[in-house]
Amino acid sequence: MTSKTLKVGMVQQSCTTDIPANIEKLKSNIRKCAEKGAQLVVLQELHNSVYFCQTENAALCDLAEPIPGPSTETFGALAKELGIVLVLSLFERRTAGIYHNTAVVIEKDGTIAGKYRKMHIPDDPCYYEKFYFTPGDLGFKPVETSVGTLGVLVCWDQWYPEAARCMALNGAQMLIYPTAIGGVATDPLEEQKVQSDAWQLVQRGHSVANGLPVITVNRTGHEDDPSGNTEGIQFWGRSFATGPQGELLAEFGKDEEGIKVVEIDLGRTEYVRRGWPFFRDRRIDAYGETILKRYGK
């Protein structure tokens, strides 16, 4: 079996309301990843700004931008300079009144290789995303790049085995999740720990079930609720990477800022799927009656 190793950089950082400063911090961390040999660099969800979905405020739609647009131009130039593939997470303005939470993959020549619009949109305390984001309409299509076929999903998508499986069935060589998730202060600390562990565990399960590496990049730090109605969000950090059996290859601490570069063996999927042939044994003749319903009973 052929072994194809890929060095992947992850950038975990806190953000403020100073967008230019956030972008400069991101660019500095991306450069550090490239200096350590990263061929692919993944950023966190909605990395240019604070996580603005803690409140419902139509004026915040002014943060949205077209794709292509300012961010793809800025980060595209950096990707070209460094010769890396870059996964961005942007607030996309599609047209007046239609906005998406969109991941964009920049090729190492600075061009846009493809994009994915977040399919599952949450509406929970402190995470009022349905107010801002129209559900994605591009399906679960991996993006072909010079470093491999990337199954890019976004945050809330990471709880859904269907999303991971669809990306895998469509040829993804790894699953990538830009993320912004943390604890809501009204939940006891013990409950927040259970939630944080479950968040990592379910994604490691996607890795095992599909025989694929997983790269998850979360933000860290505390962000205030602009309305003052809650105590804001303490993001979990804990960005991590797995091999195709769910084995942890790298993990950030909760409050850790900076970069990690991890080596992923894309060729190992072949070995793992031969030993655990879950795709071979799927009963594709038996799922449709239930899986396409909201509830089967």
List the helices and strands and how they pair.
Elements: E1 5-12, H1 19-35, E2 40-42, H2 70-82, E3 85-95, E4 98-106, E5 112-117, E6 123-124, E7 127-128, E8 143-145, E9 148-152, H3 161-169, E10 174-178, E11 182-184, H4 189-210, E12 214-217, E13 220-223, E14 233-236, E15 240-242, E16 248-251, E17 258-265, H5 268-275, H6 288-291
Parallel strand pairs: 1-2, 2-3, 9-10, 10-12
Antiparallel strand pairs: 1-17, 3-4, 4-5, 6-7, 8-9, 11-14, 12-15, 13-14, 15-16
Helix pairs in contact: 3-4
**Number of DSSP strands?**
17
Which range best describes the helical content: under 10%, 10-25%, 25-40%, 40-55%, 55-70% or over 70%? 10-25%
At the first level of CATH, what is the class? Alpha Beta
Q: Give the H and E element order.
A: EHEHEEEEEEEHEEHEEEEEEHH
Which strand-content bin applies to the residues?
25-35%
* Content-based structural category: alpha+beta
Radius of gyration from CA coordinates: 18 Å
CATH topology category name: Nitrilase/N-carbamoyl-D-aminoacid amidohydrolase
User: In one word, what is the shape?
Assistant: globular
Quote the distance from N terminus to C terminus.
Answer: 44 Å
Arrangement of strands in the largest sheet: 5-4-3-2-1-17
Q: Identify the CATH homologous superfamily.
A: Carbon-nitrogen hydrolase
The CATH architecture category equals 4-Layer Sandwich
Tell me the number of structural domains: 1
Poorly predicted spans: none
Secondary structure tally, helices: 6
